[in-house]
Amino acid sequence: MTSFDSVLDKDGVRLTVDDAVATVTLTNPAKRNAQSPALWRALTEAGRALPGNVRVVVLRGEGKSFSAGLDRQAFTPEGFDGEPSFLDMARGPETELDATIAEYQEAFTWWRRNDIVSIAAVQGHAIGAGFQLALACDLRIVAEDVQLAMRETSLGLVPDLTGTHPLVNLVGYARALEICATGRFVHAAEAERTGLANLVVPAGELDAAARDLAGALLAAPRDAVVETKALLSGAVSRGYEEQRVAERAAQGRRLRDLAGITD
């Protein structure tokens, strides 16, 4: 891949690659990067199109807002052109509705693959699906003007785009419930204090901060980062003794690799 090779550009999503760093950009600032099924399919395609040498993926949104969430057109009788409306989907068989939501969720799942580290660079509004997309990433850098909110419950819905698991892991059950049930805004200072954000920077420095973090993540050997990410992500579901075993196994693999020993 040559520097800044454009791999994909469709339906409000652009994927570019610069050596080991890929950038996924939401490209509809006129609508504050509102999301649709077509955008979700493009995000899924971007994940599948990543070259094998990519180690870090930066997710960003053009304009003043990262993403204002689901395009409200989804709730109109006509829906989106060429798409079933959400109202029609609700009237269909339950198994089809479940399969459709599962397909939508695929746009939010690949960001935590062990072979990459993903960074969301978030400015302005990140609401509903926008908040969940930021939560899908491993790390988040937010601008001082950020406004995070989970507004699904205020619409009579629930967050269903994989955001509930990382939200609870980051801030705990009680705060996650309060954030979701009230739909209130979480601003930059609270986001950093509660672990939703790794770093807060002025809006004009957001892209540069993401580039700096990407560079720092590339400093360590790839295999060590991959093993460490798998070790840490699995710690959530393991007990203390299970984690000790996992640490020994991972370190054994790394030592054998460094010694040039193959199984």
Model description:
The radius of gyration is 19 Å and the shape is globular. The chain has a 7-stranded mixed beta sheet, with helices on both faces. It is built from 10 helices and 10 strands. The protein is an alpha/beta fold and 263 residues long. The model has no long low-confidence stretch (mean pLDDT 94).
* Estimated share of beta-strand residues: 15-25%
In total, the number of strands is: 10
How would you characterize the largest beta sheet? 7 strands, mixed
Q: Which of globular, elongated, flat, extended, rod-shaped describes the shape?
A: globular
CA-CA gap between termini? 32 Å
Overall residue-averaged pLDDT value? 94
Which segments are poorly predicted (pLDDT under 50) over 5 or more consecutive residues? none
Compute the CA-based radius of gyration.
19 Å
Number of H- or I-type helical stretches: 10
Q: Give the helix proportion (percent range).
A: 40-55%
Supply the helix-strand structural class. Answer: alpha/beta
Order of the strands making up the biggest sheet: 1-2-3-4-5-7-10
Descriptive terms for the model:
263 residues, globular, seven-stranded mixed sheet, 10 helices, alpha/beta
What's the helix and strand layout?
Layout (H helix, E strand, L loop, with lengths): L4 E6 L2 E6 L2 E6 L10 H12 L7 E6 L24 H6 L2 H16 L7 E6 L2 E3 L1 H8 L2 E5 L3 E3 L14 H8 L1 H10 L3 E2 H7 L4 E3 L4 H12 L4 H14 L4 H19 L5
Helix pairs in contact: 1-3, 5-6, 9-10
Compact summary:
The chain contains 10 helices and 10 strands.
